[in-house]
Amino acid sequence: MSGEHVTDPVESPRAAVTAEEDGRLLIRVRLAGQDEPPRLLLQRRPGKGKPEEPGRHLVLEREGPEEWRAVLETEPALEEGRWDAYVVDAPDGERVPLLPGLRDVRALMPGGGAHGVRAVATPLAVRIPYATKDGRLAIRAWHRATHAEAGRITLSGDTMTVAARLYGARLGEGAEASLHRRGRNPAEIRVPLRATDDREFTFTVDYGTLVPKPGEGGQPGDTPVVWDVYVHPATGTPRIRAARLLDDLADRKQVFVYPHTRVGDWSAHPYYTLDNDLSVQLTRSRPGE
What we know:
By secondary structure, this protein is mainly beta.
């Protein structure tokens, strides 16, 4: 072998994350060769065409040899979005992406608390650690003053029945669910809620009422028709987006896949969006399908 000095590849820092029952995230980073306390940077991804905003910096405290620790407190809450995790030496230092280690998110599951019940405070502040498609650590955050948590969805014939629960609001007279059609031909459909108590309820949607009328689009092969689902707790109250946020899934769309129902020339199915909000999609069938 020649006299060249050969070094082993430098391993990227890796972080283990534990979700605690009080809503905090405990982040432990394995980082070698670090004498001064590094910083953990959480940087929210900007919206399309928007500039990057200042991130959230946390000081990492030494916990052992090559081990550092930070706590993401519940306040101030992270703004809604996706936050990438980095290690930096200074606020404006070079960003080193964190790799995901063990993620203990049992406390985020329904019944995941010590007494079998997950406590949920309002305004709702949800933070779910996850691995991105390119293998990095990120946190998906939601922050909502009011929330309608979708539960079981039952499909029967041409209908779907959704069970849900309100947070930050209570049911009153005239409570309804509403579905709003996206696109150039907006429309709204409302259906009554069936209350179990002042927070829990169900509602049923007939897919046939969501089929576009002639001239409203929906030719075979066109962009699907999408209806977004909301809840109105009482007459005259602001609408609340129905979503499923209270568990350990940062991206539900490819996990919760529901059967398609044929309604005349259309195929209908509920689905969760990239933000885990509940919607219904209708697609016009091609001839012969």
